[in-house]
Amino acid sequence: MGRWRFVGRRAELERLHKAVTGTLGRGIFFTGNAGIGKSRLLREGVDSLPAEAYAVGWIAASATTAAMPFGGMVQVLPVEQPQGLSPAGVLRWAVDLLQQQAAGRRIVLTVDDAHLLDPPTAALVHLVARTENACVVGTLRNGEQIPLPIRALWTDDLVEHAELSPLAPAETARLLTAILGGPVDGRTADRLGELSAGNPLLLRELVHAAQGTGEFTERYGLWNWTGRLELAPSLTDLIDIRIGQLSHGVRSVVELVAFGEPLGLRLLNMVAEETDVEAAEERGLITMVHSDRRLNVRLAHPLYGEVVRRQCPVSRTRRLQAHLADLLEGVGKRRREDLLQVAVWRLDSGTAQDPAMLIAAAGQAFARYDVPLATRLARAALDTGGGFEAAELLASILMFADRPAEALGVLDAVATDTCDEERLSRWLTVRGMVSYWGLSQPDAVEEIARRGTELTDLAAQARLRAFEAIMRLHRLEAPTALRLAQGVLDRPAASVAARELARCTIAHLQAVQGRLCRSAAAVDLVQLKAADWRAGAPYLRLAVELARGTRLALSGDLAGIDALGADEFADLADRGDFRLGSGYLTILRAYAARLRGRSDTAMQAALSACAILATSRVYAGLAQAERAQAAALRGDARQAVAAMAEADNSHSPNMAVLYPWLEQARATTLAAGGDLSGAVAHLHELVARLRADGFAGHETLALHDLVRLGEAAAPTGPTCSDGSRRTVAQRLTELSEKVDGELSPLLARHARAAADGSPEQLLHAADSFMTLGLVLPAAEAAAVAVRLLRKHRSPALTAANERLAVLLGCCDIVHTPALRAVAPTLTERERQVARLAADGETSRTIAQLLFLSARTVENHLQRIYSKLGVTGRAELRAALRTIPGHDDAAAT
Fold this sequence. Notes:
By secondary structure, the protein is of the alpha/beta class. It has 6 domains: 154 residues, Rossmann fold, CATH 3.40.50; 62 residues, no CATH class; 138 residues, Serine Threonine Protein Phosphatase 5, Tetratricopeptide repeat, CATH 1.25.40; 118 residues; 82 residues, no CATH class; 107 residues, no CATH class. Helices cover 64% and strands 7% of the residues. The longest helix has 18 residues. The protein is flat and about 110 Å long. It comes from Micromonospora endophytica.
């Protein structure tokens, strides 16, 4: 594995440069844990100093040189030293020699691992720090004894002292992208970031181990990690060094926490000596975490647990887990999660004998969307005699683990155990769910409908009708779906889960019809009842999120999409491998990023969604359609075409309700490939179909796509009684009175401004789009205004140009027909950027003059960066920070 590209740490680099180049600074020392990146930061910062202005001397302290006088200075001072000098004289000679070698340049004495310096070298470093025209920079490791002359550097205010924190999640993701040569799936970055705790050295070892075992795979241009961790010897040795030699008592504490975390402190003190617990905490092996009124104990680093668990013999592991289960059962399972913890300990220790406990625990794990754990527990429950209850739960979980065929086998094995109508209805609904969504069998709807007529129990009937309703909606049988769902709500005998599933069906239908306020109210009602349905039917969350996500997308509520992607369900779905949930939310993130003009983020999210949903047909076509949209936005027509082909191949006919999204993406793909007439014709066909289906919410977006292609004044829809046809702008105006929310009237206003050819109104529309955070349509509206003003040689053109430049400065690479019609060619832009940068223009000025994105400006300026002096680089970094959304890594 080669040298990794330096990523992030912009603030620390700035601080280092300021300490070296400032008039008052005498240097800085960075303190941090081993492997946190101190040495690399020091090297990157010092290597960028121009040799003509700075004389850099390196001191690499080590345990070997610590025992030798001036051992750390072997690369700086000559081997032969003057004889007969006192210790003070030797120090003065060394300082004078450094001044001679500097030849008038500023001395920068760089000390890596300063805690390992021998006493004479430490004294010399302190003396240099007091010398004019000199500064010292260095690193120290946490927990080590620091030589007194080094400690005095900051206690005497000679240098700054800074703690180097772990890499932030975004920096970890960028580092992974750099080393793997391509973008990394968000869940992969999060998991590796957690395991490494933001430590670059540990991250390096984790990636090295995963690459060595083939656990990294690339799909749709996105790197994914399977999650299976094979600890390489180098990584195990590294963790062993950190843990160090442990007494028997402290090792027992670490092992108990490794197998039981989060482990209550009270429980831990029942099985371990309190002095050993305190010793483990003092050594930084464990940490205390408050959880409500309970104080829990966790390992200080996730990898400690991986190493300790693997080194512990199997027999001891099972004994520890069984003992923990006995203890918690003995004190009483006071919290809901205690049951799950005991069940896992029982399962892992081989002492699980109670199928009822395992079923309850599997239900809890499923309600937390931890699909792998729920599968293990439900399987164990079935194997220990759980019967129908265990089979029903296991089949439901397997459906969402992308194993529908296996789920069907589990259900068929207990088909004869459906002794009453209540149990039969449960068996039929789970089997229908697996057959319809898991295996894409359309006749599952008819089977559910037929069997429902055979039942006499009203609650059992309601359960089947609720499932049939949502299946009918997904199959685009909206009137039937509405009738069935309303019937469930009107039936008092219906269970909470059946009623709320029916309400989700209605909420989804209301959203596509443009009744967004009613849809929001319906979803809120379902959420209020979550505590009543989540334990028994956690998969209902998918129906909730589909209804809510559809409404948010159709209303242009980007803040709502952000909130949806940041709530508890999103986190649980990502962590628990609940792919349908996390995949759909990732599609929404891509959609929001696209409307913001953030094509890089949109593409990465779309690719991630495609990878997550690759083995499922429920949302796979939708993910590929969003990938096509992102590719088209970037001007990548070839990838857009390929994505649409995969969308058509993977889209399930049983999810026909999603057709508007796919067909909009198809029109965008045609436009990206230059077939504007084909895109326009396709959108007109889509508008007609949406109008026939009563999908007014979707129709507004499709009509607005026509406006974006310059068709605001084009006729659309059926012929009126007077023989005329409404224009796109007129139809949008008509819909603005039917479709709820702020977006629909704004789309109509944009359409009227475009149809009237009014630059002023187009710019007003752009401002309104920006108020909603919709940067891309704002930029397109402003671009059309600029084109009209340019055509009429209006004096308002300059101001409009500046407004467009600011909007495009908020975007990444964006290529749409409206923008291509006004922006200069890429080749001409590159020539202008190079010319202006050479003339000393700032990046913001360049962006405003050329309508460029921030990233495009950065890419060109980076080529000039290496030719600038320290002052020029500082000015460039300051300029880059003024660009909205610029990448810190690019500045670094």
